[in-house]
Amino acid sequence: MNFIISGKNLEVTPSLKEKIGKKLRKLEKFFNPDTEVYVTMGVEKSRQTIEVTIPFKNMFIRAEETTNDMYASIDNIIDKIERQIRKNRTRLQKRNHGQLNAEYINQISNTDKEEGDYRIVRSKKFSMKPMEVEEAILQMNLLSHEFFVFSNSESGHINAVYKRKDGDYGLIEPEE
Known about the structure:
Layout: E1 2-8, H1 14-24, E2 36-44, E3 47-56, E4 59-67, H2 70-87, H3 89-94, H4 102-107, E5 130-131, H5 133-143, E6 147-152, E7 158-163, E8 169-172
Parallel strand pairs: 1-2, 5-6
Antiparallel strand pairs: 2-3, 3-4, 6-7, 7-8
């Protein structure tokens, strides 16, 4: 596995790189050796956050952990990723595309509760009038929603705005 490690408001020390490498090597049993793993560490006030993203053909495995200690965050992130793989192992096998080690996934204990197909419990249709991003954020706040899908009047594409954990807003738009 190839690790790409970066830091936000944090200098990534050799000891942090060594700890990350040691812990993330436990995931090698799930992935092919040429898989790239993106690790982003950050510090905001007293929160130490690590985010691990593993992209493979049309899918991502992503986990984020925040604690008061970066080393504790690193320890906890592996459990989250393994739990995601176990929970979704059937779906991952179907979409394998040669990136996941299918033999190892098959050996994972069947005692884990396997999720069935995704179940849609509600479907909603609504008309989308073109609006600017600021208007979409206002509309989302008026509705007390966590996200809002709208037609962007500037680009003509379908976009989504969402409220982030830090209180700011995010915008999701398609690549061109």
